[in-house]
Every structure is written in C-alpha cells, then in structure tokens.
Amino acid sequence: MSDSPALTEVESYGVERIPDADRSATPFDLFRVAFGGANTFATCVLGAFPILFGLSFWQGLAATLLGVVGGSLILAPLAVFGPCNGTNNAVSSSAHLGVHGRIVGSFLSLLTAIAFFSISVWSSGDALVGGAHRLMGVEQNDGVFALAYGIFGLLVLTVCVYGFRFMLFVNKIAVVAASTLFILGFFAFVGDFDPGYQGSFPSASTAGFWPAFIGSALIVLSNPVSFGAFLGDWARYIPADTPRRKVVTAAFASQIATILPFFFGLATASIIAKKAAPYMDPAAPNYVGGLLAISPGWYFLPVCLLALIGGLSTGTTSLYGTGLDFSSVFTRFSRVQATLFVGVLSIGFIFLGRFAANLSQSISTFATLIITCTAPWMIIMVLGYVTRRGWYDPDSLQVFNRRQRGGRYWFHHGWNWRGMGAWLTAAVLALMFVNVPGQFVGPLGDLADGADISLPVGLATASLLYLTMLWIFPEPREVYGPRGPRLVRASDAPVPPITTETGAPVPAVAEGA
C-alpha cells in the first residue's frame, strides 16, 4: 500500500476510480466530514424554524427529531456508492440514469453547493461581524460584511483546492471545537431557557398546527438530504472491502449527531422569541442578530469562533465535491481549475445575492426547492443499488468522463429513460405540492390544508414509478452482473461495446487505472 500523501499536497485525483492502494480513509473519517459540515450556525438557523413557524418548544423538538431521523434514513444508503465504485455519486448515477443522464446529479450538486455555501457564509459572516461588534466595537456596515464574506470564501476555496485530506484535517478540528462551543452555549443560555415556551399552537388540534409541524420537520429533513449528492465525494477514499453496514452506520450517525446544533438553534430561538421578539418576525427573521442580542458578554468570543469554524467546515463540504464533479462534466478543466471556477462563481453569487438582489432571506426557499428535486434522485439511486445487488462495472461508469460511447450504461444514446422518466416525473409533481408561505406555493400546494407534502409525494412517486418501469420495460441483463436482478426482470437486449467518439474500439482498462 502506498504512503499517504502529505497534508499540504494538492489532491491529484478527479472523478476517476480511486486505486485501492490509495484508499486509506475509514467510516469514522466519513462521520467526521459529514458531521463537521453540518455542526454549524447554518444548521442552527434551520433549527430555529419550528419556533419561527409558531410551534412550542416541545412541538418543535418533536418536529426536529422527526426531520433528523427521517432525513438520516434517506441519506445513509447513499454512502455505499463511494467505496463500491471509488468515485462520486453523480458518476455512479450513470448506472441508473445513463451515461449522459448522470449530468442530473452534477447539476443538482452544483445548485445545492451554491445554496448551502451561501447560507453558511452569510450566517457565519453575520455572526462573526456581530460578535466582533459586541466584543470590540467593530462597525457593522456593508464594507465589513463584505470583508467577512470574502475571508470565508477565500479560506474555503483554499481548503478545497488542496483537496480531500486537507478538508478532512479541517473537519477533525471542527467537530471537536464546534461541539465544545455549542455545549458551552448551553451554559450561557440555561438561565433564560424555558422548555414550557408555548408558541402559537396550544395543542395539535389547533388550526394551522399540522402545516407548521410538517413544514418544520421537512425543513429539518432537508439538511441531511442535502448531503446526498456529496456523500460519495468523501466516501470514495474508503477501501472497497469495508463492510457496507459500517459505512451506512457512519453516515446515519453523522446526521443523528446534528441534534446538537439543531437543539441549540431551537432552544435559543425560543429564548429570542420571548426576550427579543422582533428578531423572530416571520416577515424578516434574523436568528443570528437575535442570538447576539440575548447572549451574555462572555459568549461573544465563542460566537465568533463558532462562526469561523462553522463557515469553514460547511463551506468546504459543500464546495469540494462540486468542483470535483465539474471537472468531469467539462474535461478541459482539471480538478483544481474546476474548483477555482465553481468557487469564484459561488463567491460572486454570495455578494450579488446579499448586496444587490437581497436574496439572503429567500435562499432557504431556494434550497428547499433543490432538495425537493434531489430526494427523488436519491431514492432512484438506492433502489437501483438494491435491484443491481450492489454490482457495478467501473469501466462503463467512466464512459462519459473519457468522452467515449457504449458500455453497459449506454442504454438509449446515453440516456436511461426509465430512471430519467421516474426522476423527472417525481420532481415536477413534488414541486407542484411545495408550500412555503410567502415564498413559493405550487399549483397543488394547498391540497393538504396548507401543509407542505412535496417531499413525501416525490419519494413515493419516484419509488413506485421507477420499480414499475423496471418491471414493464426491463433493462439489459448485462447491467445486473453475474447474480442477475433482484425484484425486477431483465431483458436479453445487447449492450454496445465501449468505443471512442469516432467509433474506434477501446481496449479494456484495468481496474484502478
């Protein structure tokens, strides 16, 4: 086995299959990266939504637990593709959406990265500037905020350029440091915390309770689901022979652990609602400002540290994988060049959205819409893994990246209309059921008495439609490997050989080459 590269050595691998000799990560490393990316202020902001929607503390806690557990269960199976195929999840999706259909995963990951990178930088930048103002009298103006956002953006970009090992190092520190600071925060606010906070709904039978409860749970659930497109980016360095249950357990545990920042956000939001109510105005919520308003003086420095650590860890986990995948869609870019391009694009969006278009309040809605489209893609991936019995052809997965044609996953001119049709139908139908009051309400958004049921609709539609299409229109037997399909039928349709774009045959590529 080769020696591990130095921490400051720029990562050379893109989305090609990672050779077995270079896979030295563990399931615990996956836990640290995934948890570190969510153990931040951005998650606290999402944790404040149950109070913002009018729920009591206990009602909000129930919605939070439901969202975290439900989202963790949806996300965890996506961890198996990285060790199995040695590449990211968008490339692995070639097996189910087709060689060209894999761009769906790339597009979703790009939008998700920009959205959550923006949420992270805005919330952490605001907290850092606000804490510095209270601690040292630093002015709060657009210039100072721009400086904070720029520092975060450049730090994140630097880590992402160095690559996976440097990102892992950052998150090893972030997990411990941020968790310690959150626990310290409980001591800062325990005197003001009232678990009996009533909110606007004294009981579950109160009109408007269920829409608020379901909406809160779905916003919380969107946090773990947002990692679906990125999980393979971090898991691809885990050896292929690692037991799948350990990898799935690590991914599940990483999101269950986010109860810590979610609870912090929920508890402090209930305090803000009582002591600094204007900050929790649904028309113009400002959780970070409210947190600083109720914080004791000695907690301002920890707030600044939380902002710095959280902005760095969340930003790197969002941006790293997108730069990685972008280099495979546009092969003229190396991984480093693609990361720089996507990073600059994202930082530009942050400044434009914050200072020119005032999108900072609506970015959470944008993220919700992206997750609504991502969840059906995730369920198709998981069901595809089950029907294929976890068997994949590494060479055929790389056809798009090598600008080739043919192979097991070529299907119909590079598109598998079974997976594509199920995803597109489920995503469009789910978007029609979205109900985010004051932001976006789909044509069918009011059918459930104001409750947002878009995610359950999308997941159910994708599951039923994909399995039905696999049964009625069976895929070629060769995509299933030696053990054959599970739950569905297979056809004897021929699979075209892998060729270059000009039609010349391509010699077989050894695994790990």
From TrEMBL:
The keyword Transport applies. GO terms for molecular function: transmembrane transporter activity. This is Nitrate reductase. InterPro entries: Pur-cyt_permease (IPR001248), Pur-cyt_permease_Fcy2/21/22 (IPR026030). Belongs to the purine-cytosine permease (2.A.39) family. It comes from Streptomyces antimycoticus. Residues 491-513 are annotated as: Disordered. The keyword Membrane applies. It is found in: Membrane. The chain crosses the membrane at residues 33-55, 61-82, 103-123, 143-162, 169-189, 209-235, 247-272, 299-324, 336-357, 363-386, 415-433, 453-473. It is a multi-pass membrane protein. One of its GO terms (cellular component) is plasma membrane. Keywords: Membrane, Transmembrane, Transmembrane helix, Transport.
